[in-house]
Structures are given as structure tokens and as C-alpha cells.
């Protein structure tokens, strides 16, 4: 039985001398795996459609195991993303995070649209660091990880200055700081952005301008939060850390 889907390549695995196994995140079927026979050969008709981040339509033979890719057509290759090592690194982190947090064949059109918009915005030159933080915030729901950002996680206070407590799973007010001595003091801007990233519709994204110190604080919060609650160990994040060190050197 032939099946046609719209999808994005989120992982490729070499198989034998000439083949690739593609992991696609699709609008219609969620995450699926297909065998692209001969895709490693430069002249193969499946070569271009089998590249990481490629957005296209895929026609495959559905089987009880891996599907077998028959043909595909590129909708968007996201060339600018793939041509820049930093954009590629951030894109790789995003698709690996999605891959690790989703199961095969779980249909989720919202998540497909989120992935597409994030990759598209990075390719178009929007701030890739902020887009990554937005994706991380929205993927917390997929990971089944709660986060309390609508007030103090301990007493419920809605106003005032907040710190971020990994232990308490979100904001704590100045009156409750005694319950977590390791709570990270955050700026008002960081608190507002965390709420915004969690709730807002990505289609409404406009111009992005965030101070470097705020970016650094958001990164620290979310990396620590994922380390504590997700149980993930991503190769792409280690590579991002190496790239960041290279920038500073």
C-alpha cells in the first residue's frame, strides 16, 4: 500500500553502502521511519530528498516495519540553515530534541507545525537562540514536564520580583526564597519572556530583540531544567556547547 505524507527529515542513518534510513516527522502520521534505497549515491533520485531538515512530500510503501521510500518532492530544502554551521547546529539540536521526546506514529499536527515554523524562521534569519528557547519551552508539554510560570510556585503570589527554582519547578517570590537557597535570581524581562514563549502563537512572531545577558539567563534556566527533569542526553547539545566555547575563544 502506497502512502503519501508531508514531512521533515529529522534524522538520517546510513544503512549499508548505498542506503539511508530516514526518520520523518510528518503532518499525517507523526514520526515514521522509511528506507531510502540508494540515497547515498549522488545521482540517486532520492539523494536530495533524503537530506537532514528537508521539507517535502514523500511517497512510500507501507509495511509492517520500515516503509520503503518510492519517491519524494522537495517543498523547501532550507539551504541557508544547512549552509551555516551555527544554524545547522541549532537545527540539529531542535530535531534531536523532538526525536527523543516523541514516539513512533503518534499523530500531532500542532507539533508538526511548530517544528516547521521554527526551522523556517531559523532559515529566514530570525534569532536562532531565541527560537531554540521558544521550542524548548513548548516541548516541555510534550516531555510531560510541568513548569510554574504564572506566579510563585510556593505561595501563589502573582506580583513582585521572582527567582527561578529548579527544585520548586518554576517561579518563587522574594518571600519564599528561603525554601530554595539555590534559586536563580532572574530579571523581569526573563520572567516575561518565559511566559510568552510558553503560551504565545508562533505564527504571531515579529521582530526579535533580546539583550545578550537575558539570552544567557534563559539558556541557563532551560538547560538546567531539562537536565533535572527530562532525563535526556543529547549529542547535539554537547556540540552546541563546543561551538559556543569556540565563539568565545
Model description:
- With 249 residues, this protein is of the alpha+beta class.
- The protein has a domain at 1-127: OB fold (Dihydrolipoamide Acetyltransferase, E2P) (Beta Barrel).
- The chain has seven helices and eight strands; from the N terminus they run βββββααααβββααα.
- The strands form two sheets. A five-stranded mixed beta barrel has the order 1-2-3-5-4. Strands 7-6-8 form a three-stranded antiparallel sheet, with no helix packed on it.
- This is DNA repair protein RecO.
- Involved in DNA repair and RecF pathway recombination.
- Pfam families: RecO_C, RecO_N.
- InterPro entries: ARFGAP/RecO, DNA_rep/recomb_RecO_N, NA-bd_OB-fold, RecO, RecO_C.
User: Numbering strands along the chain, what is their spatial order in the largest sheet?
Assistant: 1-2-3-5-4
CATH superfamily of the domain at 1-127: Nucleic acid-binding proteins
Backbone shape = elongated
Question: Beta fraction of the residues?
Answer: 15-25%
Instruction: Label the CATH architecture of the domain at 1-127.
Output: Beta Barrel
Name of the level-1 CATH class of the domain at 1-127: Mainly Beta
Helix-residue proportion: 25-40%
Summed up, the helix count is 7
Distance linking N and C termini:
54 Å
Structural class: alpha+beta
The Rg value, from CA coordinates, equals 20 Å
Low-confidence stretches: none
Might you state the CATH topology name of the domain at 1-127?
OB fold (Dihydrolipoamide Acetyltransferase, E2P)
Biggest sheet record: 5 strands, mixed, barrel
Number of strands: 8
Average pLDDT over all residues? 93
Would you list the SSEs in sequence order as H and E? EEEEEHHHHEEEHHH
Amino acid at each position: 500500500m502506497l502512502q503519501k505524507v508531508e514531512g521533515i527529515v529529522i534524522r538520517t542513518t546510513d544503512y549499508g553502502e548505498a542506503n539511508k534510513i530516514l526518520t520523518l516527522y510528518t503532518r499525517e502520521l507523526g514520526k515514521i521511519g522509511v528506507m531510502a534505497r540508494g540515497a547515498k549515491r549522488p545521482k540517486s533520485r532520492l539523494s536530495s530528498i533524503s537530506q537532514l531538515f528537508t521539507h517535502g512530500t514523500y511517497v512510500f510503501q507501507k509495511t509492517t516495519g520500515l516503509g520503503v521510500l518510492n519517491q519524494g518532492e522537495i517543498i523547501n530544502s532550507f539551504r541557508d540553515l544547512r549552509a551555516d554551521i551555527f544554524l545547522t547546529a541549532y537545527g540539529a539540536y531542535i530535531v534531536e530534541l523532538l526525536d527523543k521526546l516523541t514516539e513512533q506514529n503518534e499523530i500531532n499536527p500542532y507539533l508538526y507545525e511548530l517544528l516547521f515554523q521554527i526551522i523556517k524562521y531559523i532559515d529566514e534569519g530570525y534569532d536562532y537562540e531565541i527560537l531554540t528557547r521558544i521550542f524548548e519551552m513548548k516541548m516541555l508539554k510534550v516531555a510531560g514536564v510541568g513548569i510554574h510560570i504564572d506566579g510563585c510556585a510556593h505561595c501563589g503570589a502573582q506580583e513582585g520580583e521572582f527567582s527561578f527554582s529548579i527544585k520548586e519547578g518554576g517561579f518563587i517570590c522574594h518571600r519564599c526564597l528561603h525554601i530554595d537557597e539555590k534559586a536563580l535570581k532572574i530579571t523581569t524581562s526573563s520572567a516575561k519572556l518565559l511566559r510568552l514563549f510558553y503560551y504565545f502563537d508562533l505564527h504571531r512572531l515579529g521582530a526579535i530583540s533580546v539583550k545578550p545577558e537575558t539570552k544567557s539567563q534563559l539558556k541557563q534556566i532551560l538547560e538546567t531544567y531539562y537536565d533535572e527533569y527530562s532525563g535526556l542526553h543529547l549529542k547535539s547539545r554537547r556540540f552546541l556547547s563546543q561551538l559556543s566555547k569556540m565563539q568565545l575563544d
